[in-house]
Amino acid sequence: MTITRRTVLGSSLLAGASLIVKQGPAAAAPKVTPISSHVMVPNGSLLPSKVSGGVRIFHLRAEPIKHQLAPGLEITAWGYNGSTPGPVIEATEGERVRIYVTNALPERTSVHWHGVFAPYGMDGVAGLTQAPIEPGKTFRYEFAFDRAGTFMYHPHADEMTQIALGMMGMIVVHPKRAQGERIRDYVLMSHEWKIPIGTSRPDPLAMNDFNVLTFNGKAFPGTAPLLAETGDRIRIRFGNLGPMDHHPIHLHGHTFEMVSTDGGPVPPAARIPETTVLVPVGTTRTVEFTARAPGDWPMHCHMTHHAMNQMGHDSANLIGADVRGLDEKLGRVAPGYMTMGADGMSEMAHMRMEQPKNSISMLGLKGPHGVIEMGGMFTLLKIRDQLADATTDPGWYEPPAGTAATEATAAELARDGIVP
Amino acid sequence: MTITRRTVLGSSLLAGASLIVKQGPAAAAPKVTPISSHVMVPNGSLLPSKVSGGVRIFHLRAEPIKHQLAPGLEITAWGYNGSTPGPVIEATEGERVRIYVTNALPERTSVHWHGVFAPYGMDGVAGLTQAPIEPGKTFRYEFAFDRAGTFMYHPHADEMTQIALGMMGMIVVHPKRAQGERIRDYVLMSHEWKIPIGTSRPDPLAMNDFNVLTFNGKAFPGTAPLLAETGDRIRIRFGNLGPMDHHPIHLHGHTFEMVSTDGGPVPPAARIPETTVLVPVGTTRTVEFTARAPGDWPMHCHMTHHAMNQMGHDSANLIGADVRGLDEKLGRVAPGYMTMGADGMSEMAHMRMEQPKNSISMLGLKGPHGVIEMGGMFTLLKIRDQLADATTDPGWYEPPAGTAATEATAAELARDGIVP
Amino acid sequence: MTITRRTVLGSSLLAGASLIVKQGPAAAAPKVTPISSHVMVPNGSLLPSKVSGGVRIFHLRAEPIKHQLAPGLEITAWGYNGSTPGPVIEATEGERVRIYVTNALPERTSVHWHGVFAPYGMDGVAGLTQAPIEPGKTFRYEFAFDRAGTFMYHPHADEMTQIALGMMGMIVVHPKRAQGERIRDYVLMSHEWKIPIGTSRPDPLAMNDFNVLTFNGKAFPGTAPLLAETGDRIRIRFGNLGPMDHHPIHLHGHTFEMVSTDGGPVPPAARIPETTVLVPVGTTRTVEFTARAPGDWPMHCHMTHHAMNQMGHDSANLIGADVRGLDEKLGRVAPGYMTMGADGMSEMAHMRMEQPKNSISMLGLKGPHGVIEMGGMFTLLKIRDQLADATTDPGWYEPPAGTAATEATAAELARDGIVP
Fold this sequence. Notes:
Three copies of one chain form a homotrimer. Chain A is mostly beta strands. The first copy, chain A, folds into two domains: 5-301, Immunoglobulin-like; 311-358, no CATH class. Helices cover 12% and strands 33% of the residues of chain A. Chain A contains five helices and 24 strands. In chain A, a hairpin with a 2-residue loop joins strand 15 (256-261) and strand 16 (264-265). The longest helix of chain A has 24 residues, at 5-28. Chains in contact: A-B, A-C, B-C. Chains A and C meet through strand 17, strand 20, helix 4, strand 21 and strand 22 of A and strand 5, strand 7, helix 2 and strand 16 of C.
């Protein structure tokens, strides 16, 4: 199957559209502080809300869902309001919220507001601060967001299973006083899945052999790019609810600073320049930086197996071996089998290989100069001097002539005395 | 078996008591700076000491021990003076100490003072700075603690095996000048174990599939709670000697700052607010914060498999499958087998399931509102406006009426236009 | 086989020598800012360069190599210019460089300059910013190093495979204005390998059971020590390109501060004292400190399985069991088998055990006081009041009499009332 960037963008265009509509009521609310600016959620959306009696009202539905991790791989997961991660809850500092949670799952659940100073009884720990929400029931949580920041929500009941199956979401609380800054404010939540090749059910028992890694529920090439104009101030709010890995997120061509955690703002004097931010399990890490130069800059987890898609980790290591005909033979008896090939795996990304049913190849999207041999927790920050709008992919960036790496000419090699 | 909080507390009450008695001599010592205040060690104790000729004298015995990780799970481990982790060594800045180490193990050992500026010859690296301590022998270490701080001790001989089996301990050196601050000063050392279900011997070869996680040698519900009064200043000294995982320790309802590492104090300007502190292998992380509000606030490693107890990671993933009668049938042939169940694992915590001999269920302690579906590296910070004393569990906290999450009434749903 | 420190040092002496020669041309260059001082690369070397027309010219050759991880273990890896990691690229802030890359591998490759602000077209992402470098081709990269710092280079084509096989290197850019400081400036790059016992081919599919860990491509006892004189200022530039683990590097007897990352310098007010620096995947961490006291101070990854060499993680746990004759019997049918022994593994390091062909024992180097039971990512910082020169191992340090841990005498035990 040929994947085009266009098909990928579809989803985020929809998300973008629905986002505006959904926020209509909120924007029209008279009694509460208006949200100064909305965060942008690539491949995702904001949780709709309405305001009544000075309280912002939300409704979360915990439910089994069909979810596409990337074109070609659809799973049965658990999420909120039809998606995983759930829609982003957006509010304003000091705002009082009432959040109804309906349990449409086959087992008990609850919702914990990670990092939020909710009253003890609203902390959402099943058995401890409240009775679990039994299947079919709807609970009411009500509290005020006392501080601005980036937080998360997730079940605190059979946590290991429910988080593994996709139940998590982000919370963004904007400061009361709009700082009037023009900033592109993005939210990216990571997750790691174990999807045995050929199946459509995440394995919640997986501890260390995750094979599909996602940003906002999508694995590359399913990830929608982040967009910005040269010189723009950019904020990215990363969230990680695990299950198990601390992800080092690297951005090409830029340095950034961590400006806040789910605990609060990082004092300017304590900020450190980095090109890779480690996002430990159970934390949010918000970074800020300025778009330095035009380009389609990669941003990805630097753990090499996390920038890949499904692979057969039980496969034999064939580097350097003679495997003529091996694939063909093994394919007959072991459909899930993927050989590394004797010369590395690049070849797999370039041949139009037949994939096992409902699975995605380890590598690849056709880029402007061949196949981009990446997958998983990988996306692009597309910077242009000018963008058409906030949700339309500008396509591929072409650097000015003579500024790209190319094959050296014989004259150059001779001039510099290079013997290949 | 029904686990009650009472049985759990027993151990820590004893520890508390013995702590006072044991410190008698030290407190009575005339020649040395008195220790301003003792640290508190949930589920643990302080290493007794006596002072002679201005030197504080300790005696560590490295030995095989029987140890209860949680009610229902007892193992044969290696530790110091009958426990794992070993008793906390407490001293004062500038104090000269003499530490005798007796090797009652079947193999060579040594003791390294992690983070301490000991003279090179006292650094405790077997084969390098000293001969190994052969079984049956007693070695003498002597040096002065030149700086206040939180450090650790562990063998530097067959390190992988001996640490995996439980040989580690914490060191707290108080500043010479008592700061006169009233602070609740806690010490928590983490560890990760691989205890195959039905066995009683930790597997030192385990690299990434640990199934019992502990704070001070106990897995929830075996962990004694930390106690404080509203407004109290609290210090928690976390230590992690591995073997392999960097643990993200999360506290509900509060933010804190890391104020020191085993390298020294963190300058105030460099402190960052967090709700989760990452404690890398081979480090201590000391955090401080103020008890914000009454409640039984969870504190746990946020890696989901680390807030669980023993589980069969080889089990099949049965989410969504029809497993009627499967448990019963498989149980006959495979005693260790634990099915996830078709609807998640919550059910396991609620039914009084028959456990394999010497093993603990994945989830659970009966709480005030049902079963708390947690285990492993999970404990509670119990804050009350007033406590009876420092070692008596105040029981469960009940939030004021109307401040807890409950099922939404029909009237509420109608008023807010919520369709479950 | 008996390993002596001498054989080990051989390699680094050669590296040291070649280093001087290779830098000859660079030092003689008139048109460019002279490099104030060279970094030192234990077990490694600097990439030779020449200057022409004000541009510093380098040539990297990506190629399969034979590489010795430690005496007794030679593998077939992929690297640059005959080594893994590749030679260190050293330049000066503001300097323009031209780097030719020849692909002598059997598959496509490219080179990404991690942390460097290269023009987009020179960023080295195959398929995205450039066409991949096909086997046999030579590409030209050209850009200016706009900032001083510690960066890295690696392929951005079939990244998972190529990095796992050893393709990576460090980049050091010195500040334009020589700070005239006298500092011992070291570069150490970590890597983790899965080398099934008895084989010579790293397995790129390994995700979490790495069994050979290295600093600059060498596992202890193959690691050359770092040298310094008491009172010297020391800088160590750590780099980690994974594949998967964030390594906590611990130094005995000292504390240090992280002074910069691949993102830039850490402001003095934000620096934190540590004895263990966590080096996440995809980052560089540069620490500085002062040599405190003479000794052979260990520096190692504190994850216990990372300070070990090859081990059979599938072996049964025999701690406490009666294994008389077991080794001998199992050895006949399973050559790769290594028993833990009933009393721990120390014994293995002390007996001159027969190793499987092309493999290294889990533990060990014969030290001044017996076998040092360590391996993997472990080295020594050898501090002396005075050193002969920068590349000659001063041998073992002997602490002054009476300053080392020794067996307690009967008189001492009696005096202090210690009952062993």
